[in-house]
Design a protein that fits this description.
- The protein folds into two domains: about 1-75; about 85-330, no CATH class.
- Helices cover about 70% and strands about 0% of the residues.
- The protein has helices spanning about 5-50, 65-75, 85-105, 120-130, 130-140, 145-175, 180-190, 195, 200-210, 225, 235-260, 275-290, 300-330.
- Helix 3 (about 85-105) runs parallel beside helix 11 (about 235-260) and helix 6 (about 145-175) packs across helix 7.
- The longest helix has about 45 residues, at about 5-50.
- It is globular.
Length: about 325
């Protein structure tokens, strides 16, 4: 073997080992995050409704979600006879992979290589919206009218609420003069968090990500009172669990992106940068949970009217006002 071949083999081995290690670390954290958020949501709902929430399995029910995970791992994977088998099996994997990619791209300290990308914000938003295709695939391939309706509703909802999210993020881009996430945080370090400068954009972004992750009061695509379970009605075991793994991971990822855009990202005193970013992200996730157990579910016509007739026009006006004021401030 020549020296070039030996170097190439060593480089490939090192790259694969690094990718494998990174995947294991990220998957380990995301698994813990999902278990923690499910437990936290049960506790939040319990306290809002003056209940205890889970208490029996582990201290304050801390191991309840671990028991649930083991239960799902042991459940049989049932496949209905008349499904489009390839699409049916591919949908849970396809909803999981973009979420994993986005989670690996969120910069937690600004030192990551991806934080240097000039269009990093666009990449993250594009990947986070890709999951809607998998949701539609799951509903369509299930050969179940309730699942199809859930998939169609989810497609309509995500398309509608992606627009105010993008317009809100574009307002931040105008202020920072860059789509680079590090530059956006640096611009807030030189001034104030954009939450104080762009409160309308921050509110629009938060409402949009709540709807994009199918959280109440925007959870009509999987409304159990109307659609049994929505797009995942025909899924069981770990196939079913992958949809909720992606949902809770998406909550954290979009919360971290919101913290980066409006709350200064990893900036903060005393604690290291990653700790500040996670604290801000989990604070936004907590508000999502708070909203779920406070507001009633919207009807689908109300949900679409809110997006197209209120949020999008307000986002456009906010964007125009920002475009008019930024040059004068410069």
């Amino acid at each position: 073997m020549s020296a070039v071949q030996a170097w190439l083999a060593g480089y490939i081995t090192w790259t694969l080992a690094t990718l494998l290690l990174g995947t294991v670390v990220i998957m380990g954290y995301l698994t813990f995050n999902t278990l923690f958020l499910i437990w936290l949501e049960r506790k939040v709902s319990g306290h809002i409704q003056r209940r205890y929430g889970p208490m029996e399995v582990g201290p304050h029910g801390a191991l309840q979600t671990v028991a649930d995970m083991l239960k799902l791992l042991g459940k049989q994977l049932l496949t209905p006879v008349a499904v489009d088998r390839f699409v049916y099996v591919a949908a849970p994997l396809l909803i999981f992979l973009p979420t994993l990619c986005v989670a690996s791209l969120i910069p937690v300290s600004g030192a990551e290589a991806f934080a240097q990308m000039p269009y990093g914000l666009i990449v993250i938003i594009a990947l986070s919206g890709f999951t809607v295709i998998a949701i539609f695939m799951a509903g369509w391939s299930s050969n179940n009218k309730y699942a199809v309706l859930g998939g169609m509703r989810s497609v309509s909802q995500v398309i509608a609420y992606e627009i105010p999210i993008l317009l809100a993020a574009l307002s931040v881009v105008m202020l920072a003069g860059s789509m680079n996430l590090r530059e956006i945080v640096a611009a807030q370090a030189r001034g104030v968090p954009y939450l104080l400068v762009q409160p309308v954009a921050a509110l629009l972004y938060f409402i949009g990500i709540t709807a994009e992750t199918n959280r109440a009061p925007f959870d009509i695509p999987e409304a159990e009172s109307e659609l049994v379970g929505g797009f995942h009605t025909e899924y069981s075991g770990m196939r079913f669990a992958l949809f909720f793994f992606a949902e809770y991971t998406n909550m954290l990822v979009l919360g971290a992106l919101g913290a980066t855009l409006f709350l200064g990202g990893w900036l903060g005193p005393w604690l290291p940068g990653p700790a500040w970013l996670l604290l801000k992200a989990y604070a936004l996730v907590f508000v999502m949970m708070w909203m779920r157990w406070t507001f009633p579910r919207l009807r689908f016509d109300q949900l679409m009217t809110l997006a197209w007739k209120l949020l999008i026009p307000v986002a456009l006006v906010n964007l125009v006002v920002t475009a008019l004021l930024v040059p004068r401030a410069g």
